[in-house]
Input
Amino acid sequence: MSFHPNDLVRRSRAAVGLVSLVLLYLLGGFFRTQIIQHDQYAMQSEENRLRQLPLPAPRGIIYDIKGRPIAENVVGYSVSVLGVSADSLRATMRRLSAVVPITDGDIETAIRRFRRDGPTRPTVILSDASFDVISVLEEHRTDLPGLIIQSSPKRHYPDSTAVSAFVGYTGEINESELLQPRYANAGYKQGQQIGKQGLEKQYEQSLRGSEGSRFVEVDARGRVVREVGTARPDLMPKAGDPLYTTIDVDLQKFADSLFKIDSVPGGVVALEPKSGAVLALYSGPGFDPNRFVGGIPAGYWKELRENPLRPLYNKALQGQYPPGSVWKLITSVTGLEAGVVDMNTRMPIPCTGGMQYGARYFRCWDKNGHGHPDLFGAIKTSCDVYFYQLGLKIGLARMLAGGVRLGGSQKTGIDLPEEGRPRWPQDIEYYNRRFGPRNWANSGEILNLSIGQGANTQTILSIAKFYTALATDGAASSPHIARLKNPPAREKIIHLPPEQVAQLRQAMAAVLEGGGTAAGSRVEGLTIAGKTGTAQSERSDANGKELNHAWFAGFAPVEDPKIVIVVMMEYVPFHGSQAARYASALMARYLGVRAPIMINTGG
Output
């Protein structure tokens, strides 16, 4: 078969055209890659070659009222791994586990972090590594590709357990927290430290600061080759804002030392009465917030959880307890405002150690009785029989309304997270539901309510807020720990003539005089007004003896109160007079009055 010359020419031209089209396509792709998409591919190349290492920001320092640090920063170390894939990260961590303690759970957590955040950000392995661990890792660095060891600021609490009740602690943000809007919308990332409790959590946004970054060049295995330097300049972290508080660390540590003498659980709240500034907020026993930084050791966590004194339960902030006789001042104010008594009123039935009401005999705390006191004397001696009758005079509806208005059912609004809410019935419907309509009339519930028992559990904070009103002009101050230029507005809750408020204070001052329930807590040179309380609990000791919640609420000096203190001891075999000893010692300490530490666990 022969070819015509024209066929050969046509085929040659077709081949040249096809080659030209291929060359044009290749040139177009080259132009697109090198010119049009240059920036995009250059960025991808840099991302494959460069890794951004976060530089943690120092948290803002928390100061007490005198400028002493409550929470500060010290030098710490973190360990991360730059993984190029999940498999390479797993392999590196397996090698790491032969050198430092890393569990299978830690490895799986790291893999999940890597899959979520990708290879561009190091995966944190140890957020608070000791110097010994760092030394060991440095010896094995060549065997561990992608290992990043950084110096980073570490939270430190100089006063440890003494401040744990209000300062809280920090820890690494976990996976569930990263999904919460407050963190997700603020750009939080894995490996960062956040406030978990207390002030650290409440003021997280201002304390956290701004994370910085630096860039390093890595090879194909993820190993750091060199610092990038001027090609990608470091972005230095910005420290968080300082937080200035109203806490007096000396008073806080003194409260801690008092509770450690008797090794009893309980709490203390100390307020400046006119502003509501928190001078001390203590829950004992406390925990060491330093042990939580970087992850709490399993052994310490187990110890805290199994401790029968419940160090993880914030007794000052969250604890809800029957207030006992410290509530009698609320009953007194309610009765005075209703006009059913004045300070000189005596009740029809004298106190002979108890009182019959219906089918029940309601006892007074003193089986010998108190005779025939007026309201002044009933406050001084804490006569239950007097207050039983006062409750009956007030009536249940007015009693409940008075308790609500005086703060018995509301949170105080303190600037701390997770405050407990006191429990006090809002109205008679509570009893109609419980006993049936009007069946509560002969139940004696109002007698229990009048002396701080029954359907009434209060927080130490709620009682302290009410006593700021007694210590001033009848206005209550919402507690706050952060130092504020404009403190919260004070709310008038006691509506009595100034002379009656003054008489109530004098009756409370008599509590610490001869014949008063806290006479043993009197401090020479200091006039203290207060009220003891001994509330029954549901527990007994090993010998079957009933345990109490021992209370004292008061303020000093009576003529111009500078401090309100509430002390509560949880599940103890003694009475409110012991809490009064603690409170007197704390008031004397704060006001600079020399006084003995009067401790007597049998009192």
